[in-house]
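Lab meeting minutes (informal)
Scribe: AK
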Amino acid sequence: MKIREPVDEKEFIELSYILSKNNPYWVCDLRKNFLKLVSNTHPFWLEAERKLFVCEDNGKIVGRICGINNKRYNQFHNEKGAFFGFFDCINDLNVAQALFYSVEKWAKERGCDFIRGPANPSSNYTWGLLVENFNETNVIMMPYNPPYYIDLIENSGYIKEKDLFAFRWIYNDEIISKMKKIEQKIIEENKNLYFEFINTKKIDLAFNYVKDVYNSAWEKNWGFVPMSEKEIENMASEIKPILKKEYVFFVKDKDKPVAFCFILPDFNKALKKVNGSLNIFNLIPFVYTLFKIKSGRMLALGVIEEYRGKGIEVMIILKAIEIAKKLGWEWGELSWTLEDNLKINKTIEKFGGKIYKKYRIYRKEL
């Protein structure tokens, strides 16, 4: 068994598709998207350093990990930390510990005094380790891992730093009727506020709005790091082909965006059919499943600080529910929220949302 750098990014990413092939719950990203994310040409890496490691045993790749020195994050939080990400491994503690030792040694050489993860590659993408509910597939842009990863990470010296919640919501007429009465009072007290859907023909402008609200709304959240201009541009270009105006909407005060919401159908239902690669053999079942998707995810809900406490979150969730119903969704996931973000968690619960999955961020002092 030996730890080495991969020959290239393709060798690094392939382990996911090998390990997940026979798992009924694990949905992988498309290879081309995964490859783009880990490639050093992705805009994330303009302000972050990475180191890829794989573990080879008898000529076979059995584990992988990425060390991440997120300079933008450390400057924003005044920390000296590193992250580990893109961790995948067979159920072998020796392999896992060898991988973690390698990434920790790399982080120490860069003056880091702790390591946190999993981050793939930051909180603006997918992060966290699934620690509860392994018998349902991961929804769009959320991670999945087998349960034995918990033991591999914890037995490598990592402890819980923070849990993230994913809520399941199912339409309930009685709850919605009650919340609409609350909404009426909110509207009466904030008559200057109105909804505006994204203009898909002016997506660059719309995502500038998203960036401004996102970076303002989350700046005090644990784990947050502002997205760069190039990251926002890249996200806009990736989402544009699948974007409909219903998926992103803003709350505005006159012409000023003060809140936004981002929802997507659970495209993972279709991606499960292709195991990472679209081709002529799986294209028909992929497209067929796209038209049968009956669920979705609320990826983001943000309100800038000076507009909090006005009930705007209630307005947004009700609008998202209205859209979801028109799209024919039978249920939705609201994810993720921090375990100690009591206000938003209680608001989601008032709408009938229930925690059905938990994800964990781990930390180890170096």
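Next up, CB showed the second protein from the same session:
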Amino acid sequence: MDRLPFSRRQLLFFALAAGVVLLIAGRYFASAGTPSSAPAAAPPAVRPPPLAASRLVVHVVGDVRRPGLYRLSQGARVADAVERAGGAKRSADLAAINLAAPLADGEQVAVPSKAPAIAGGAVPRGGSDSGKQGPVHLNTATLDELDTLPGVGPATAQKILDYRTAHGAFRSVDELDAVPGIGPKRLDELRDLVVL
């Protein structure tokens, strides 16, 4: 029988060395397969900006239980802002505002009060009373209130309401210039008669 080139002791040493190498290689590859902690920390730093951008702040005033500033999610409606402010009081005239209108960041939601009952013989609001009326609120005015403005008939009043529904609340009186039928000259006439 031929003699093996290695002794038993040498074979045992080689087997043990190979086992140690395999053990070290196994641990190396096992640790390389798990994600490190640095990439896992990066996504939370990316997520807050979209969350912050999905919020808006509105100012709710008028005939609500808790007027003030409220944070709402994008896509919220005027009804959501009124509800967030504790709801409308009994004296509120919710028919005078568009509860379905979408909100924009920085917008003011004004909930008007119902007009007081008119005593017998008195001229109703918008009539030919010689006393001066207050300014018309562009963001809460009804068709009849807008119709009382000089040079604004029922058709133009409806166009103002349609514009307000499509684009949300007016942010400045100058936006009236974008309503069909109201040009620069008419805008100058209305500037002191309307408020936001």
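CB comment: Residues 51-116 form a domain with the Ubiquitin-like (UB roll) fold (CATH 3.10.20.600).
No objections, moving on.
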